[in-house]
């Protein structure tokens, strides 16, 4: 085996120099695979009900608004995104990538559409169940980032017996492997073929050789060919854009190296604090853990390529006000100092890939506590989605179906815009560590995402009244924000416990019912706005305390207590919203991809 002990920085960079995107080999596909993925596939009669409930959106792209260098960078970043999309498919289901290749050989457009919309071969049905629509294995809790035969109980027992391995096995960016001879040999061969990865992960070879039971493989090693391809594309994009936006070029180069090291500190620091002067921004890498149904700690890949709306960004930034004042007013004792000049911009979507594909409205990153404490966070508002009239009309229809007639004009598109903005700011506020100094994600594990998302929802609603009193909102805007907060929590189906968003929404719905914000009569909900602030503050107090205490069992018990589903109340409202809908799902295509 080739060992590279004293490699210089120059040699490391030479080992990873960008190659032409045309010459780079495609991701390997197992040609020995003989499965007919279309045998027994859903018929058009089965795919039809889902596709009939699908809103089709096409996001435009005007290259003339970009410089020549930016246009070239876009091409490279789109190539990187396409590869990360395939990598995401592999993370969520072990057969997704082979199915993606097989899709080219079928003329069943309904199956192609469903695969694209569901981001894999497992469909979420109208009843909110998860079912394969092709000839593939059913979705499992480990997804494809833990061994397929593993369980939470088995891994917990192994970690309890080997606590020194916990940080590696539950690392944000590692795949857990069974420590058998085949897996170890494959990992060692990858490191031998790519000595730069060995340098960036010192001690990994010996760890793999000595592993018993399970071992953790960094994403850059587990997905080496994909990551090196993306590295090349980011470096090429950086070179293309350097004369237009040197700060963005610097970020791209650092992010390329981050992907090889599975440590995003350098890139994230530059991303959050950099003064990007051009038209582009991008979210690149693996951040969010929503797809990890086993522990809730593994991040999944995405890339969002965004075009800044400079005028709207400047207008929005000037309207935010003093974030520290809101933080100081939150109902918890361990308030912290936050950056009131948190970078926030409004963007139009050029293309989304991987976990980000769909109609995500906004993002705040990074998530890692030490980075947000040291450098802050950045907020990316997607105007393409939030200002989309078709999406808003569908939301308004659902709101009116659920509520009594006197509320039908309460919801407005601008109210939901500001509710979403302050949801993202809300992620930046409240405790970022438990009382013993542990990261909240590590402490709450599979409950962390839903508690965090609920906190952000509640901070948004909590701050609305203060911003109204400060003159930032009109009375109509405040009511619209509150109405959007109600629509946010109404579920059409009972959520599965693994669904972070749906579960935290149900907790809020039940809390609002209990506190009298919502009453149910003759199949409709009435909103009692006078009770809104107290109910929000009381639930926010509970949620902030759960984060600060960092007790996973207590968080799980709280969620279980507040997720009851009454078919004669929740079921009736859900049915009314379903009866009003013209769409449940969204299939997005992008002009930038020639779609």
UniProtKB/TrEMBL annotation:
GO terms for molecular function: dipeptidyl-peptidase activity; metal ion binding. PROSITE patterns: PROKAR_LIPOPROTEIN. Keywords: Hydrolase, Metal-binding, Signal. Residues 1-21 form the signal peptide. GO terms for cellular component: cytoplasm. The keyword Metal-binding applies. PANTHER family: DIPEPTIDYL PEPTIDASE III-RELATED, ZN-DEPENDENT HYDROLASE. This is Nudix hydrolase 3. It comes from Litorimonas taeanensis. The lineage of its organism: Bacteria, Pseudomonadati, Pseudomonadota, Alphaproteobacteria, Maricaulales.
């Amino acid at each position: 085996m080739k060992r590279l002990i004293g490699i210089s920085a120059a040699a490391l960079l030479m080992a990873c120099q960008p190659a032409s995107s045309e010459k780079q080999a495609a991701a390997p596909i197992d040609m020995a695979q003989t499965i007919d993925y279309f045998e027994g596939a859903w018929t058009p009669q089965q795919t039809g009900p889902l596709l009939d409930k699908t809103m089709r959106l096409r996001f435009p792209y005007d290259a003339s608004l970009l410089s020549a260098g930016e246009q070239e960078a876009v091409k490279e970043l789109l190539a990187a995104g396409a590869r990360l999309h395939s990598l995401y498919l592999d993370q969520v289901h072990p057969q997704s990538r082979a199915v993606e290749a097989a899709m080219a050989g079928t003329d069943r457009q309904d199956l192609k559409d469903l695969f694209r919309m569901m981001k894999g071969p497992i469909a979420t049905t109208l009843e909110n169940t998860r079912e394969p629509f092709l000839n593939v294995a059913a979705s499992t809790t480990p997804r494809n980032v833990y061994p397929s035969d593993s369980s939470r109980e088995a891994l917990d027992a192994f970690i309890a017996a080997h606590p020194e391995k916990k940080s590696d096995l539950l690392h944000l960016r590692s795949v857990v492997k069974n420590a058998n001879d085949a897996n170890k040999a494959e990992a060692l061969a990858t490191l031998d073929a790519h000595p730069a990865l060995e340098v960036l992960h010192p001690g990994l070879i010996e760890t793999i050789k000595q592993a018993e039971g399970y071992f953790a493989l960094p994403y850059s090693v587990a997905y080496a060919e994909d990551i090196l391809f993306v590295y090349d594309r980011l470096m090429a994009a950086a070179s293309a854009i350097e004369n237009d936006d040197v700060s963005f070029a610097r970020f791209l180069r650092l992010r390329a190296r981050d992907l090889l090291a599975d440590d995003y500190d350098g890139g994230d620091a530059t991303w959050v604090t950099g003064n990007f002067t051009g038209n582009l921004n991008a979210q690149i890498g693996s951040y969010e853990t929503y797809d990890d149904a086993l522990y809730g700690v593994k991040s999944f890949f995405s890339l969002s390529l965004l075009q800044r709306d400079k005028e709207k960004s400047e207008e929005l930034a000037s309207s935010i006000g003093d974030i520290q004042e809101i933080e100081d007013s939150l109902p918890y004792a361990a308030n912290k100092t936050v950056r009131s000049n948190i970078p926030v911009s409004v963007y139009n979507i050029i293309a989304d890939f991987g976990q980000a594909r769909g109609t995500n409205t906004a993002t705040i990153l990074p998530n890692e506590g030490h980075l947000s404490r040291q450098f802050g966070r950045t907020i990316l508002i997607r105007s393409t989605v939030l200002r989309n009239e078709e999406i808003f009309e569908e939301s308004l229809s659902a709101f009116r179906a659920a509520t009594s007639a006197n509320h039908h004009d309460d919801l407005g598109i601008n109210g939901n815009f500001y509710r979403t903005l302050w949801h993202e700011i809300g992620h930046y506020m409240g405790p970022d560590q438990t009382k013993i100094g542990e990261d909240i994600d590590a402490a709450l594990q599979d409950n962390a995402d839903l508690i965090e998302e609920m906190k952000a929802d509640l901070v948004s609603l909590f701050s609305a009244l203060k911003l109204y009193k400060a003159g930032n909102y009109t009375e109509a805007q405040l009511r619209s924000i509150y109405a959007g907060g109600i629509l946010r929590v109404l579920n059409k189906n009972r959520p599965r416990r693994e669904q972070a968003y749906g579960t935290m929404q149900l907790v809020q719905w039940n809390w609002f019912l209990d506190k009298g914000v919502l009453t149910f009569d003759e199949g409709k909900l009435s909103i009692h706005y006078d009770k809104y602030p107290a109910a929000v503050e009381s639930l926010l107090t509970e949620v902030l305390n759960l984060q600060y205490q960092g007790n996973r069992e207590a968080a799980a018990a709280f969620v279980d207590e507040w997720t009851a589903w009454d078919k004669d109340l929740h079921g009736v409202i859900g049915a009314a919203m379903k009866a009003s809908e013209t769409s449940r799902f969204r299939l997005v295509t992008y002009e930038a991809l020639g779609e």
